[in-house]
Amino acid sequence: MSAIDGLPPLRQVIAAHGLSARKALGQNFILDLNLTAKIARAAGDLNACDVLEVGPGPGGLTRGLLAEGARRVVAVEKDARCLPALAEVAAAYPGRLEVIEGDALEVDWAAEVTPPVRIVANLPYNVGTELLVRWLTPPAWPPIWSSLTLMFQREVAERIVARPGDKAYGRLAVLAAWRTEARIAMTLPPEAFVPPPKVRSAVVHVEALAEPRFPADAKMLERVVAAAFNQRRKMLRAGLKGLAPDIEDRLRAAGIEPTQRAEEVGLEQFCALARGIADG
Asked: Under 8 Å CB-to-CB from 91, ≥6 apart: which residues?
């Protein structure tokens, strides 16, 4: 399908440029332009927004974002093989696509976008979680982005939207719930991708709140939550003992029993604990 623009179908683009997906780069391409347009629409109204896309590959989602009216797309691509295909997309949408060759974990993309900004990406599986944590824990809030619409393995998506007591509840759920509203927008079967991954995938849509639900220092909250869930089978007094010598007192002050486990603790209590430890 190529009706969303005058460009060739993605299978033809991939064949012309020899773009076989590389496992080492976490690549799984979506070739159905109907589907990439649907993902773009899940991000909301793009007409007045700059969009950051990470890992555009041959440009399927890029084309969906531009066809759905994105004011401008800034695409960060590590694989130099994809640049000629992306240049063809840029030529079809003059002045609306900027491609930055580089690693998304290292590129300073914020200097290239003008708010309002939405981040939309079929994230490479090997860097998706690290990028999400970075986007959820910037030094200042609200962040430069207003929403994230991101493809993950279904298992990771469920961890982002989980609630206390859920099997999937953990660090990602706490960080997402602290300053955003997160939901699963759609799920995709393996056959939607080339090559098909061994797992199902899901698109998570995350809207930034104007301010955090509870006060806490981002870095300290991240430390507390990471330590708590790193040893989730342990009681918190054992899992967090490295954060403060009097951790049992700090836990009780935050309304947490030292014998509780991380999966039983809610967001408000984690924030109170992070404040208590930061205050010394």
From this structure: none
Going by the DSSP 8-state scheme, the letter that residue 5 receives in this structure is: S
Query: 2-11, 150-159, 169-178, 185-194: which has the minimum mean pLDDT?
Result: 2-11
Q: Is residue 70 domain-shared with residue 161, that is, in the same domain?
A: yes
Between CA 177 and CA 244 the distance in angstroms is 25
Residues 61 and 128 in one domain: yes
Residue 111 and residue 228 in one domain: no
35-49 tens-digit pLDDT: 999 999 999 999 999
Same domain for 141 and 29: yes
The answer to whether residues 149 and 257 belong to one domain is no
User: How many Cβ atoms from other residues are within 10 Å of residue 106's Cβ?
Assistant: 8
User: What CA–CA distance (Å, rounded) separates 223 from 188?
Assistant: 33
pLDDT at 137 over 80: yes
138 prior amide bond cis, ω within 30: no
Neighbours of 237 (CB within 10 A): 17
Is 4 a domain residue? no
Q: For residue 3, is pLDDT > 70? A: no
Select from 198, 176, 54, 171 the least CA-distant residue to 121.
54
Under DSSP, the state recorded for 192 is G
Q: DSSP class of residue 80?
A: G
Looking at the structure, tell me whether residues 191 and 224 fall in a common domain: no
Inside any domain, residue 123: yes
User: In terms of domains, do 202 and 66 share one?
Assistant: yes
d(CA 19, CA 204): 27
What are residue 64's phi and psi, to 5 degrees? -65, -45
